[in-house]
Amino acid sequence: MNALKHFVLDTNVLLHNPDAITSFGNNYVVLPMTVIEELDSFKRSNDELGRNARHVIRQLDRLRTKGTLKNGVIMDNGGIIKITVEERNFKNAYMDMSVPDNRILAIAKILQDQNEHVIFVSKDINSRLKADALGLEVMDFEKEKYDFDSLYTGYQEIDVPGELIDTLYEREETEIEHYDFLPNEFVLLRDLNNQKHTGLARAVSEKKVVLLQATGKQFWKIIPRSKEQLMAFELLLDPDVNLVTLIGRAGTGKTFLALAAGLEAVIHQEKYEKLLVSRPIIPMGKDIGYLPGSKDDKLSYWMQPIFDNLLYLMGINHRIEEGTVQSKVDRLLKDQTLELEALTYIRGRSIPNQFIIIDEAQNLTPHEVKTIISRAGENTKMVFTGDPNQIDNPYLDAESNGLSYIIERLKGQPLFGHVTLTKSERSPLSDVAAQLL
Length: 437
What we know:
Layout: E1 5-9, H1 11-16, E2 28-32, H2 33-42, H3 48-64, E3 73-74, E4 80-84, H4 100-113, E5 117-121, H5 125-133, E6 137-139, E7 155-160, H6 162-171, E8 173-175, E9 186-191, E10 198-203, E11 208-211, H7 227-236, E12 243-248, H8 254-268, E13 274-278, H9 295-302, H10 304-316, H11 325-334, E14 338-340, E15 354-358, H12 366-373, E16 381-386, H13 402-410, E17 416-421, H14 428-436
Helix pairs in contact: 2-3, 2-4, 7-8, 8-10, 10-11, 12-13
């Protein structure tokens, strides 16, 4: 058996990460001709899938100039990329070879029958199941995958002497030995001798923590209902924290808090020129074009959960112009203080001096979140919210989505902060549904 491994890639791996061909070391990366044909069918799309398909095709075209892809071309990382068309020689009475997935699997099986060490790589569960049934070694594409159970929460509780908590309140800061905190990590200090004697602080260095500034305050007439919401407000309203992630199940208030902080920072504090809100189109690959009506009509369908929160927030605040709640929202949209935009149209823009909220970010790939964050201009704050347990993208899960990726990659950066919200504040019914259904 050849010592080098042959990684046969499914199309969805390349659409998920267009640089995936360079992720398998100095082994063979095999692309069946069917994968090339499927990339061709995506290349005209204006969404992220189309852009990824075009990126892969351009990479292959550049590699083609170094040799022949039929025999294999050595890439910069030492790996060898090949395109093969041998699936027509594969015979299996139980597989319909008119199905593209089956033709891709056939290539992997043929290579295995030639005594090669073959690994079939796919983001699609059904394809992995079929590959396993054929006796193939299978794997998900895991380059950007993290253990969700150990995902950084942005918060920890520690037991300390009561005097340390007293010092925190007196000086609004203190130092704690024997711990190495991450920047913007929250710490609940509990008295060793009296568990009710506590102090909530935020780390500004490995040893130093400071008292929260948001404690006892309200923003946009919103009062945090839990320590988690208080921590979220602390990050959302700190202009020095340019990127914030909030995760939590339904009803924990992640989107609501982000919108309230955005309105406060843009309208009352005037720290930013505009509040920009967006969310990904699901199912993956669809644009807003499939919805009826004009662009504004399409956006109103797609952004309805955002509108619901905005209408409530505008209704409880009387410090802006008179009028009905709907007219207040319409006025903000008309004067462009508030903008609702499709993620499709954010790519390629440079966005300065804005408070940006990306809702349902768990449905984005790591590549997509990198693209969005790279759009941030001077004095722009970005907030990503979502629930990694509620993913609609068929090729992502709690461990491989873009939201989890941001949290694990950026923890420890001074301009980043994260809070995991666990307590539902929407209603007792919502809380029971989130826990039991």
